[in-house]
Amino acid sequence: MLLQLLSVLWEALSLQVILVFLATFLLVADYKKQIRPRNYPPGPMLLPLLGNMLHVDFKKPHISLQKLTEKYGNVYSLQVGSMRFVVVNGLHLVKEALVHQGENFVDRPSSPGIQGIYGSSGLVFSNGLIWKQQRRFALSTLRNFGMGKRSLEERIQEESRYLNEAIEAEKGQPFDPQSQINNAVSNIICSITFGDRFDYHDSRFHKLLHLLDEACHIQGSFWSVLYDVFPTVMKHLPGPHQTLFKKWGQVKSFVREIIEKHKEDWNPSEPRDFIDAYLNEMAKEDAPSSFHEESLLQSTLDLFSSGTESTSTTLRWALLYMAIYPEIQAKVQAEIDSVIGQSRQPAVDDRDSMPYTNAVVHEIQRISNIVPANSPRMTTKDTTLAGFHIPKGTIMFANLTSVLFDKDEWETPNEFNPGHFLENDQFMKREAFLPFSAGKRACLGEQLARTELFLFFTALIQKFTFQAPKNETLSREFRVGLVLSPLPYRICAFSR
Ligand code: HEM
Ligand SMILES: *[C@@H]1O[C@H](CO)[C@@H](O)[C@H](O)[C@H]1NC(C)=O
Ligand SMILES: *[C@@H]1O[C@H](CO)[C@@H](O)[C@H](O)[C@H]1NC(C)=O
């Protein structure tokens, strides 16, 4: 997607790829669109046709972007081909854009690739009334499941037992925890949307997760960019983008089948899950117009794709940090032992009496910074930010990295330091803690994610001590795909 451009910029690209990229833009760039509007945020001089293509060193994109911020300040503009975007830095301006001017920056940009996969229904890529209706419904449904017969908390506790069993089975030998964690986290979404979890060995489950993973991988790749720039030609050419549409097609038929099953044994007076609740909504006489089967499918998929990788990646960072900082892990264990003990499972209510563990979970989210430039937004009308004119339809990246590592907000921004969230041993909220973004279009799953992170993490640290394998050092290096994630690592989990 064009939207993944920033992560593509971030990834080091090979020379060959850059050449194709340049050639493509040379062909399609529209020179007229490159004239800057008046009072537009500053940025590097635009080259004919190329825009700012050459201002970004593809081998070290973060360094060239850092230089741009230093040179042009907290709001600057870049242009690639005919695509124009602004980057906003620092807590103050990010909040100004996302919260105080929330309405002006609430849309998401689209692109041919996004249209092909998502259409304009659903939660993540819809805009306007459709987005409002779908978001309101999803939020209230998730909230109701928190209070329903089997609460969200119970579902997560149950899954947590399965996760611990799967990790126990590794018997303290080095292993990569990715698949166990991913299974556990995506089962929570399965349970909410489909009504049931899958066994970790279920082959249908594996197939679904594998398809999603592949689809996300290709979507974050250069081929998607190419498709977005050149849809009419690319439509007829072979390449991974064709596979992408095929994979998404398969994911969709998987979910469609589950929806058909739900229709067969649906009981309107007892909705079991998100799909049942949605069918109820569709059946209402005064149902809002955006509720139909296509959007049921899309909203379900959106919950899946936004809810799984983000949370499971954060948990992978969590185990990594615990193994790198054994003294912090030991303090979490001491707090668990005194508040919960070894005989019962952690519960949400424990969080208030566990300031240290709570601070550690927050610090893990801050430092792992998994959505570094937020999801892209687009202005709904002409607006003014920091005195600059930003026309309607401009793509805006709120640089969450610049907030989570803001030198004016954090005592030791680059250090893993749970003290950032503690004052006199009590938990302390911080304004610059924005891993879920802020404002009207902030993460829809924040409550769910926070509950999952606390319960899974605490249950794991209650039962295990995580350590680097003998003679191996663990690295904090990351890679940037759809989210910023640790490089695959191996770890040992010793039962306590
Ligand atoms: C640690 C876990 C998570 C992090 C760090 C995270 C972060 C984010 C961020 C930064 C955004 C973009 C918000 C914006 O544009 O301002 C977002 C959007 C979204 N997230 Fe999450 N998220 C997490 C977990 C989840 C979960 C578990 C769900 C499942 C319900 C979820 C569902 C969504 C949805 C549906 C959107 C799109 C909202 C919209 O466009 O209205 N997220 N998330
Ligand atoms: C975001 O902020 C960080 C930290 O200030 C900076 O290193 C990075 O270059 C910024 N990214 C962009 C796209 O401006
Ligand atoms: C670790 O390294 C030491 C010294 O290099 C070696 O004797 C030992 O066998 C290694 N242990 C493992 C588990 O590889």
UniProtKB/TrEMBL annotation:
This protein's record includes keyword Cell division: no
TM annotation in the entry: 12-29
One Pfam assignment: p450
Cofactor(s), by name: heme
Subcellular locations according to the entry: Endoplasmic reticulum membrane; Microsome membrane
Keywords associated with the record: Endoplasmic reticulum, Heme, Iron, Membrane, Metal-binding, Microsome, Monooxygenase, Oxidoreductase, Transmembrane, Transmembrane helix
GO biological process: organic acid metabolic process; xenobiotic metabolic process
MF annotations from Gene Ontology: heme binding; iron ion binding; oxidoreductase activity, acting on paired donors, with incorporation or reduction of molecular oxygen, reduced flavin or flavoprotein as one donor, and incorporation of one atom of oxygen
Cellular component, GO annotation: endoplasmic reticulum membrane
Gene3D superfamilies named among the record's database cross-references: Cytochrome P450
Binding site for heme: C443
Broad class of where this protein is predominantly found: endoplasmic reticulum
Alphabetized InterPro entries for the sequence: Cyt_P450, Cyt_P450_CS, Cyt_P450_E_grp-I, Cyt_P450_E_grp-I_CYP2J-like, Cyt_P450_sf, Cytochrome_P450_fam2
Family membership: Belongs to the cytochrome P450 family.
Protein name: Cytochrome P450 2J2-like
Organism: Podarcis muralis (Wall lizard)
